[in-house]
Every structure is written in C-alpha cells, then in structure tokens.
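Standup notes
- HV: blocked on the assembly model, inputs below
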Amino acid sequence: MSAMTRKRNITGYLFISPWLIGLACFTLFPLGYSFGLAFTDWNILEPAKFVGLRNFDKLAHDPNVRDSLKVTAIYVLSSVPLGTALSILLALLLNQNVKGMRFFRTLFYLPSVVSGVAVSMLWIWIFEGNYGLLNTVLSWFGVKGPQWLTDSKTALLSIIIMSLWGVGGSMVIYLAGLQGVPRSLHEAAELDGAGPLRRFWHITVPLLTPTVFFNLIMGLIGSFQVFTQALVMTGGGPGNATLFYVLYLYQNAFQFFKMGYASALGWVLFVIILVLILVLFQTSGRWVYYEGEALAASRPKRRRSRLARTGGGEGHAPQTDIR
Amino acid sequence: MRRRRIFGKTVIYLLLVLCSAVFMLPFLFMLTTALKSSAAVLTIPPKIFPTDYHWENFGDAMRMMRFWTLLGNTVTITGLTIVGTLLSCTLVAFGFARFDFKGRNFWFLILISTMLIPGQITMIPLYILMKWLGWIDTFKPLTVPAFFGTAFYIFLLRQFFMTVPRELDEAAIIDGCGPLRLLLYVMLPLIRPALATVTIFTFMHTWNDFLGPLIYLQSDHVRTLSLGLYSFQGEYVSQWHYLMAASILLMLPCLLVFFLFQRYFIEGTTVTGIKG
C-alpha cells in the first residue's frame, strides 16, 4: 500500500469516525441488546430471566397484539392510498397554468409544516362532538355528526381523516414530478391526436410512477409508526379501537415495564416493515417506469416506441400505435 | 373555444378556493377559539367567530403552563441538536463524498440500511443505556446522539457534495489546502442551501418531538413544550380557549420558520422526498 493510499484511508475514516462511533453506540449495540432482550422476561428492577421463545408465543396469542395489528393495518391501507390519491389530485390542480399558483401551494402545504402534540390537540377539539368544528360544519347541512373520538366506530376514521390534512408534503413532491414531465412529449402526443385524458394516462402517469413508488415506501414506514396522535387523542381507546402497534409497544415498555416482551414486539414490527418493503421492491419492476430513455424525447424514432411501451402498464398487450 | 377556456379557469379557481378553505379552516377555528371567553367556547349552537376578543387568553395560558421554562428547555434541546447534526453530518458526508477510502461502499450501504430500522427497536436498549449512564431527566439522551450523525442527513449532504465539481478540490489542494480547510472554505459556502435544509428539518423534527422527551424527561423543570402541552390537556380538560392558545404558541415558531425560509422547505421536500 502506497503512502498516499494509506493517507487517504486514514483521512476518510477520520471524517466518518463520528458516525462510526454513533453506529456502534446508538444503533448496533442497541440492536444486539434488543435482540437478546426479546428472549427474556425483564422488568428492569429484577435481573432478566431467559425465557426462550416464550415472548413470541405469547405475542401470537395476545388479543391486544391482534387488535393493534388490525388497527395499524386498517390505518396503513386507508391512509396511504387516500393520501397518495389526494396529493396527486391536488398537485394536478396546482399544475394547471393559473395565476396565484404559489399562493395556493403555500396554503395547501401549510398544514404539513406543523405536527406533534399541538396538531393532535387541535384535532381533538375539531372532532369534539358538541362544539367541535367538524360537527358544526356538518350541522349547517342538517347532518348530525357522531362523537368522533369517543365512539369506537369512528375513532380510527377520525385519525385517518386527520392524516389527510397533512398531504401537502407529498403533494409538493408530486407537483415537482409533474413539472418534470417534458412538454415536448405532450405536444407530440397531441399532434398525434391524443386527448387530455389519454395523455394523462399514457404520459403523465408512467413518468410519475417512480415518485409514487418512493412516496409509498416513505408513507408505509411512517404510517406503521403512528404514536403521538394515538397517545394524545385517544390513548388507544375507546376499547382497543385506536390501539396502534407502536402505542402498544410503548405501553408494554414504559407503563407495564415488560422490556423483554416490548423488544419482541419491536422485532416483529421490523420484520413486517422489511417484508412489505421487499414485496414493494419486487413488484416495482412491473409498474414503476424508470426514465432511462427519457432523453429519447429528442429522437423521434425512440419516442414512438416509448409511447407504445407506456401503453401496457399493467402487463396487457401494449398499444403499438398511438394513432 | 374561448368561452370553454374561461369556464375551465373558473372551475379550477373554484376548486382551488374550496380546497384552500378546507385546509385553512382548522387554523382559523383554532385562532378564534383561542380568543373566546370560556363561556363562548361552549355555546350551542357553536359559533365560529367570537363576539368579543380575549387576547389575554394567551398570557393566561402561558402563565398556567409555565411557558418560559418549557420554552427555554425546548430551545436548548433544539439548538444543541441542530449544532450537533450540522457538525457531524457535514464531516461524515464530506468523508463519504470525497475520499476513496477502503470499504467506503460497504459503510455507505450500512448507512442506507440503518434508515430502515424503526426507532422503536432501539428505543428500549437506548433507554437502559441512558439510565445506566445516569442521563435520565437531563437533555443528554436527546442531544448527544445528534453529535454522532443522522443517517438521513448524511445521505442528503453527501448527495449535495457530489454535485460540486472535483476540479474545485484539485485546484484548492494544489494551492496547499488541507482537507479541513477545503471543507470549510471551499465546500461549505457552495452547499449552503443543503445546510439550510438540514437545519430546518432538524429544527422542525426536534421542536415537535414527543416520544423522546416523554421517555427521558420526567421532572417539571426539564420538560419541553410538547410535554407541557400534553399535561396541560390533562389539567385543563375542556378549557378549549386555553388549550388552543397554547397550541398556537407551540406551532408559531414552525409557521414562522416556514414563512421565512419557504424556498428551502419546498426545495428540501422535493429533493429528499420527506416533509419536515
């Protein structure tokens, strides 16, 4: 090894050393520790007892785990798709060539700037059954709204509705994606006689799929970790109606002091998230369109084949000619 | 054709105004509630606007939740976290972007993978570690880890460093510039927008953090605003004018930062794909 390579190695490692230390102390060590804890019974005060796989066995039969998985699954399956659809629609609306777009963009984005306890507090008050904003607005139309957060039928729905208020963040990402769609593609397709709907479906949508994919992954990870809303707004209730998985994990660790059991819950969560991400990546080849040939827009021959390719998004026979 | 276009524009504006109203109504309701008297909050049928405005609610709420202590704690934690994040993440990102050391790709892969680990797994051992160090009820568990880098911001800054042409480094090195001076005087001025984005995101995240303080801070004198508001809710059930006044106070810095640095927000969000 030459002196120069050695020097470069040393300098490189010196620069990343803070992170390496952090990785060891705040990620790898806790990860290993947590893995070990998952096989013990420990309440912090007495020494930990090794119990083998008993935590996982208990977990599989714990009705609260079942409820919390159900609550979390319902939340993920409704909040993520609804949020995606809504943010794409809003982005499309803003992408129209209208004056004052920046102003409206700011208004739509604003709710996603605030978060945490203050937002949860605001929404408890909005959902309040007798004096809250939502039921007041509903009463203008002669509708008598439910006791949103204290009714086990609507509590989870309320938290889903609240999550939609913050779609501005992903909306801005889609808006940037929309603005990245080359005008020339639309113009070419228009010359070929494609109407606005068809152009949307065959040009805009395919070019937007990488953004959708990315947002889906981020949304998935985020929705699995809902905590603040659940603790502050409902405390998991009424009954187990909003017992989100992470809330149940927190309760086990810091209210019941079952550290071993809570660690086992954490690992199950990790595995679920990993499997879902892997599945998404596996299927992504079928519906995510990567812009490798995007430059082809300037070359008419390739462009034709591009439009043709995008026609067969779902795997059915591609339309060979847009005309 | 012309008439159709005017019709289309009108529909778009109507939709835009309608959506804006839906997004803004919660903020408006929060503000008007904060200005109502306690009797006006609970009238049937509810009115959105108050008849008389009680600005003193803000002062009262601040006194009741001991606002200044909480604010001091929150500002200290947020400030230290921002300093730590900027320092460590810049150094590490620069190392990853500019030095072809052995094993760089391996460590970078590890860095990316750590972003997928849910914080709930490491939360329990970290709590035990902090307890063992005697750091419970201090700001250290919340601020010290920031000085050892955050994977996501390292990744973000590294991407920005990569956009700076290598020729600049080479010129600086030929002029006798060491790696640290190169970073400080050549690179940092060039990636200022990225540093602003990291600062803003760290600010928003730490300011609004709830789970961290909830686990590590127990005594009254170390609590943050988020914790304060949470227990304020327990003490003043259905005193909505005070609760909304306190919530506004908590949101105000975030809104202010947003309006001052809107450009970095929207740029940061679109570049990284996450919200603050």
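- HV (later): unblocked. DSSP finds 14 helices and two strands in chain A. Residues 271 and 290 of chain A are 28 Å apart (CA to CA).
- Next: hand off to the docking folks.
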